[in-house]
């Protein structure tokens, strides 16, 4: 569904991604893990088309993307759920979720409200449409941002996100609120019998275990390890052992 071939990215002299190859298949749940500052969010932003790679190619359903998302027409929609829910504080929940439809579609207000309400129901927030983000908890704000990511024009199926990119969706949440989000991610994946695809960046052990089918470990600009959740527990790969044990001794250099 998405393929990165030889993608590199640096900021100044800081080489963040170094010739990365990556394939994500239809219906797959892929987690990208690795120490802080290794380029996980950078990969997501490149896949979303928000950031240009310095080198390499990005294919979406076999079609090469040229440029960024505003000048490219990907054959499928790719939605991103940001680490901070990134909601507009001065807009209500309903206005946030329906933002792109209110701005860019000719749908009637009542039609948009119906779509928004359905999507808020899907994330378990059917009753908060007229509240403001500041009146919600962190977990609720994250759920609102999920509802926004899956909101698309009903007559433009290409705009519906078939691939969702989650950047640390459970960061800062307590274990129970994290479970709610993890369950929701899996529920949103398999709606109406069709399983969509997602990529998740997370540091949280429970989120890795509960939301990933396949895991890649990114370090020093490269994919250093790839496997399943259960293989993270059995592998003797030194990077994986150190990462999951939290030890400061090992090949991963501790910054700061
Ligand atoms: N716009 C930017 N300008 C300059 N440097 C950047 C920019 N965006 C990211 N970086 C740098 O690129 C590196 C990778 O950042 P990125 O946010 O992708 O890491 P990450 O693996 O997601 O980290 P974390 O786990 O801490 O969220 C970091 O050293 C960061 O400082």
Automatic annotation (TrEMBL):
Instruction: Give the matching Pfam families.
Output: ABC_tran (PF00005)
Matching entries from PROSITE patterns are given as: ABC_TRANSPORTER_1, ABC_TRANSPORTER_2
Q: Which UniProt keywords are given for this protein, alphabetically ordered?
A: ATP-binding, Nucleotide-binding, Transport
Q: Which GO terms describe its molecular function?
A: ATP binding; ATP hydrolysis activity
InterPro entries recorded for this chain? AAA+_ATPase, ABC_transporter-like_ATP-bd, ABC_transporter-like_CS, P-loop_NTPase
Sequence ranges assigned to domain ABC transporter in this UniProt record = 2-245
Which PANTHER family does the UniProt record give? PROTEIN TRIGALACTOSYLDIACYLGLYCEROL 3, CHLOROPLASTIC
Name this protein carries in UniProt = Peptidase S16
Q: Which organism is it from?
A: Aliterella atlantica CENA595
